[in-house]
Amino acid sequence: MALTIRLSFRRSFALLASVALIAGPVLGSVEQARAQTAQTPSTADSQAPAAATNPAQAPAIGSTGTTAQNPAAAPAIAGNPAMNAGPASVADLASGLLDAVVNISTSQKVKDEGDGPATPKVPDNSPFQDFFNDFFKNRNNDNSNRKVSSLGSGFVIDPTGYIVTNNHVIEGADDIEVIFPNGNKLKARLIGTDTKTDLSVLKVESKRPLVSVKFGDSAKMRIGDWVMAIGNPFGLGGSVTVGIVSARGRNINAGPYDNFIQTDAAINKGNSGGPLFNMKGEVIGINTAIISPSGGSIGIGFAVPSELAEGVVKQLMDFGETRRGWLGVRIQPVTDDVANSLGLDGAKGALVAGVIKGGPVDNGSIKAGDVILKFDGKDVDEMRDLPRVVAESPVGKAVDVVIMRDGKQQTVKVTLGRLEDSDQAAAASSDKGGEDKSKTPKLAPDDNGSGGNDGVINPDGGDDNDDGMDGQDQGSDQPQQAPQQQAAQNVLGMKLATLNAENRKSFGIADSVDGVVITEVAPGSAAAEKGLKPGDIVVEVAQEFVQTPTAASEKVASLKREGRRNAQLMIASPSGDLRFIAVALE
User: Is 168 annotated as catalytic?
Assistant: First the structure.
């Protein structure tokens, strides 16, 4: 019996020892993980002494999961581990901001005319005839002038009662009511709205100062920074969600100045117009749109950045309207081919396709064919950057613009006009028999990202001195003369002919358009690949105005001798719309 007890004890002891040997490393790893989570060292070096104390208990793990032989070979990623897990809580931050975020309730009277199902027909003398007639008669009367309500979000930007929201939240509303977190309701009046950025400013009259928030600098926000959204999703009232900045500078084709912050903080229907806060409690975005097949959040939301919204809101508060800068040019993207033809080191900037007659740069400071690389110290990396930075600039401000012209960079000084005055410029051009009879010139491309109806220019720039738009078009000091009729020539797969009354009539080419007309395009040629077709007019070759097929041919030949791979062409449509393309030199 004693032996049996001893054997059992020995076996039990051996079993416990085995468990200890197996569980020791596992438990040690768990405790190590807990310790690492709780530690908040500023650098990886602060952990080195503790690890060196007992290497067996704190092995260094390499990127492949094996024990690292040299800890110095696996440097820690720079950053603050204390922030990697996100904020422990946003309760204190949210509590001071909730009272500044409001619900926007709107109502609108809508008339239904011809909508809905037709009144069903029943047999004569049917016992249900009176029932059907009374039901559908009353139903139609009720719906003929029904009231539609909607809910959105907003936030108080000034203690005196100014409130910011989205334009689409209050658009078309007959009645706007602001509901505060404490349940108070105040009627609001519309101060101003800006459809291009989808922003509106409301005003309520309060007997006491309201809790308000202020704008922060969205330009300082980095991808991965924490943000907090507060709004009224699905009419539920003040709701707080937290996420990060997922991306910056998003273009979702919502307007000409798209520069959205993308976030994964939950944004749903009803959040529109609500604020997106940084961790300092500053508004760095206005929640505006989501991508969702179901209507609910899937983690892709968009906010108008404060760097764009703040100026718009201030102008709406001060003037009840926006007053944007206007450069008066028509632009298009710089493609790789165009960049190569102009000697640029990459496809960047905005290519000037035309200058609005009567606009701020109609004095020749900026010309068709120029590529705008910088505007007022800000880089223009792509075409859509230019409309935004120009619009954000004060009207009447003199700014430096860096352009590429004739293969060289130069800086010109321009004084901005007001975008709203572009309508007057178009009207003046039309009154003077100018090129554009029906279009409204604009700086920005339209919502589809194309050049838009920005108006056109005369290929000679409308210069009354008859010295050509560039002042160097003919490369000669001799007065410009009318081109002599020349035989058609084949250039880059195009048959070119001098413009005359006959081909103007056959192709419907406007009198204001000048250059050489394309009468044929060889199938499979470089010109055909670029979409050129008979009736198009070649206005310039490599920023040099051409009036004869010979001039065009000679310019192309000179480009080949220079070793150029592409020829930049300014092309006019029969109606006068201009664009630039780069055609490969065969």
Answer: yes
437/426 Cα distance (integer angstroms): 8
For tokens 């000409």, name the residue: 256
**112 given a catalytic annotation:** no
CA dist., res. 425 & res. 39, Å (int): 66
Token representation of residue 394: 């004060």
pLDDT tens for 336-354 read: 878 877 778 888 999 998 8
- Catalytic annotation, pick one of 168, 218, 362, 514: 168
CA distance 482 to 287: 59
d(CA 241, CA 230): 7
Q: What is the pLDDT of residues 287-330, one digit of tens each?
A: 999 887 777 788 899 999 999 999 999 999 999 999 889 999 88
Residue appearing with tokens 């210069």: 463
Handedness of CA 24, 29, 34, 40 (dihedral sign): positive
From 549, 409, 423, select the one nearest 491 (Cα to Cα): 549
Cα gap 170→179, rounded to integer Å:
14
Give the whole-angstrom CA distance, residue 513 versus residue 577: 9
Per-residue tokens: 362:
């109609």
Question: What is the distance of C-alpha 301 from the center of its chain?
Answer: 14
Q: Which of 194, 198, 385, 514 is catalytic?
A: 198
The pLDDT assigned to 277 comes to 97
CA distances from 106 to 220, 232, 288 (A): 35, 14, 17
Please state, in angstroms and rounded to a whole number, the distance separating the CA atoms of residues 214 and 570.
48
Question: Alpha-carbon distance 19 to 278, whole Å?
Answer: 50
- Respond yes or no: is residue 512 known to be catalytic: no
Do residues 103 and 179 lie in contact, with contact meaning Cβ atoms separated by under 8 Å? yes
What's the 3-state SS for 444-507?
Answer: CCCCCCCCCCCCCCCCCCCCCCCCCCCCCCCCCCCCCCCCCCCCCEEECCEEEEECCHHHHHHH
- 233-304-301 Cα angle (round to 5): 45
Enumerate the β-bridge partners of residue 371.
351, 404
Which of 150, 153, 200, 272 is catalytic? The answer is: 272
